[in-house]
Design a protein that fits this description.
With about 260 residues, the protein is α/β, with parallel strands linked by helices. It contains 7 helices and 9 strands; from the N terminus they run H-E-H-E-E-E-H-E-H-E-E-H-E-H-E-H. Helix 4 (about 150-165) packs parallel to helix 7. The two termini are about 45 Å apart.
Length: about 260
């Protein structure tokens, strides 16, 4: 009898812990220009040089490292020009999940970009929760030269402004933490851990969970797991989803659950 009671308790807790529904997005890169798909060796460039000018009908008077043509001016001789040495870029220092966990979240710094919100959350069940992937692979689908601005920032802002206190926004790689300021959503570093991700979903008690990651995270194990719980998969082998599609779905989610 006692064993039956504990089994009943276990399944009751487990069923409550899962979100009512998981909306899982595998985001693909935007369509690239066809020139990016052509190898460098296939692209031909035409450049005006002293050699092809002097070999033609135009007069080109030798001068310095080239020659002077009265119609087009000075033309350099590439055979005499010195190759420009390429500077080796300095390695970028990245911060992994372990480093993030070691950052001291002092009182008054609850919204530090790496610390996240350190305040203890209430035990109330949230209406909507948004998980944004900040691992390095997200660079392929959401990169901006300005590290403080990206598409994930806009998504987070839409949820915050549209849902207010009804939404809780988390950032994840190999760890998960509450988002601080909007710029923290644009970080691209670290790896992902799918087993942890599935465990976090199991432990979540939110009503509607939105998870945004890139197409590279699609695996058979993760797909089978999502098929076994109340979820909808966007992208992957079903349909190609880009950031443009994500923005459209974000607007619908805010309208459905937060208005």
């Amino acid at each position: 009898m006692k064993k039956i009671f504990f089994l009943f308790l276990f399944f009751t807790v487990k069923s409550f812990a899962l979100p009512d529904h998981v909306h899982f997005f595998f985001i693909s890169p935007e369509t690239v220009s066809i020139i990016n798909e052509i190898g460098d060796e296939e692209i031909k460039f035409s450049k005006l040089t002293a050699k092809n000018i002097t070999g033609g009908e135009l007069d080109c008077v030798p001068m310095g490292d080239g020659c002077f043509n009265p119609q087009i001016g000075f033309v350099e001789d590439q055979s005499k020009s010195k190759p420009i040495a390429k500077e080796q870029p300095a390695p970028h220092r990245t911060i992994n999940a372990t480093d993030v966990d070691m950052i001291n979240c002092e009182k008054g710094n609850y919204f530090d970009i790496f610390c996240g919100k350190a305040k203890k959350e209430s035990g109330a069940r949230a209406e909507v929760e948004v998980w944004l992937d900040t691992s390095s692979s997200m660079r392929t689908v959401d990169y901006n030269k300005d590290a403080s601005y990206c598409e994930r920032r806009i998504i987070a802002r839409k949820f915050r402004e549209g849902c207010g206190e009804k939404v809780n926004i988390q950032l994840f790689d190999t760890s998960i933490k509450q988002m601080g300021d909007l710029a923290s959503a644009c970080v691209n570093y670290g790896l992902n851990d799918q087993k942890r991700l599935m465990r976090w979903i199991n432990d979540s008690s939110v009503k509607q969970l939105y998870v945004f990651t890139d197409i590279d995270e699609l695996s058979l194990e993760l797909k089978d797991y999502l098929d076994s719980i109340p979820s909808t998969i966007y992208g992957g082998d079903q349909k190609r989803y880009t950031m443009e599609d994500v923005h459209e779905m974000t607007d619908k989610a805010v309208a459905n659950y937060c208005k």
